[in-house]
Amino acid sequence: MYSPHPAPVEPRPIESIGIRFGRKSPLEDPLVAAIGRTPLVPLAGIAAEAGGEFELWAKAEHLNPTGSVKDRTARGIVLDALASGRLTQGRTLMDASSGNTAVAYAMLGARLGFPVELILPANAHPSRIERIRAFGAEVVLTDPTDGTDGAQREARRRAALAPERYFYPDQYNNPSNPRAHYSSTGPEIWRQSQGRISHFVAGVGTGGTISGAGRYLKEMNPAVPVVGVEPPGPIHGIEGLKHLPTALRPTTYDPRLIDATRRVETEDALAMQRRLARIEGLRVGASAGAAVWAAVELGRATPGAIVVTVLPDGGHESSPGDAR
Questions:
Q1: Quick check: do 30-68+183-323 and 70-171 share a fold?
Q2: pTM score, two decimals?
């Protein structure tokens, strides 16, 4: 259980396990190298249901090693930190997350040999917490009513109390986050769509995916609109998405790149999540349902459009839609 008054962070010895890749680059590790290069899949059945006057494509990020787009974010942050010397032997990577980045950090820590501590709101799905702990990472839970904003505040508190112990990457304000998508997600979408993409739709959490990939796509074709997807308010059931007007706004979100924002109700996201499984054979999460719902609405209103969206994660956790 979380405590409304967390105890002070006390220094403790950390096992000196080192970075296992030794003289080799971590990019030479097959699992680390497997992150990214996910397929761009057509959603022809979903588009046909909506009238079929547009093309709908989705980046299958749930096929990354831990099952989410956040593998790209975590890898970019970790590799940059290792290269700069900010993540060194004897320091613990500690960050706040709604869940997916935490899983990716935990996997990389186990794979490359550095300790990891994650701060999550206590309403994170139990199976996601179990996955994080299975990689050997430590989990700290915060007040669920404060959401990821509360987790960020606790992470900042711990980092300030023990700066020598922690490497605090702060994924919500780390330029390595959008850079990871500028250098991988965006170029992959451009190549896989053969430059035909006319609209890009992505959910907004940290803002790294939409800002990084969106920047690259606009550099390739300034006429490509970038559309963000958010819930309609601060209380919602779409894990991983933020309602920016009422949240701590991450600096990894660049509003200058966003041409429009579509707000999706939880019920619509869950309904699309079920349709993606039954019509397209894609078992993905609620945030993917929200992104596809917004992409379909955009396609309906734009005959001839070639809409590309992102499926951020797989349906690893149960949802209200499972029983329907």
A1: yes
A2: 0.90
How large is the average pLDDT for residues 193-208? Answer: 97
Q: Where are the domains of the chain?
A: 30-68+183-323, 70-171
Beta-bridged to residue 311, according to DSSP, are: 60
The answer to whether the beta carbons of residues 75 and 108 sit under 8 Å apart is yes
Distances from the Cα of 257 to the Cαs of 188, 230, 253, in angstroms?
19, 15, 9
Is-contact 54 305, C-beta < 8 A? yes
Sort residue 90 into left (φ over 0), alpha (ψ -120 to 50) or beta.
left
CATH architecture of 70-171: 3-Layer(aba) Sandwich (3.40)
Higher confidence at residue 319 or residue 185? 185
Task: Single out the catalytic residue among 184, 193, 211, 287.
Answer: 287
| 48-104 pLDDT tens trace | 999 989 999 999 999 999 999 999 999 999 999 999 999 999 999 999 998 899 999
User: DSSP 3-state assignment of 219?
Assistant: helix
Element (H, E) at 96: strand 92-96
pLDDT for 158-171, tens place per residue?
999 999 999 999 99
Asked whether 284 and 314 are in contact (CB, 8 A), the reply is yes
Alpha-carbon gap, residue 225 to 22, rounded angstroms: 44
Mean pLDDT of the chain: 91
User: Residues 70, 97, 218, 242: which is the catalytic one?
Assistant: 70
Active site residue 287: yes
273 touches 285 (CB < 8 A): yes
Whether 218 sits among the annotated catalytic residues: the reply is no
* Closest residue by Cα to residue 272 from 258, 253, 291: 291
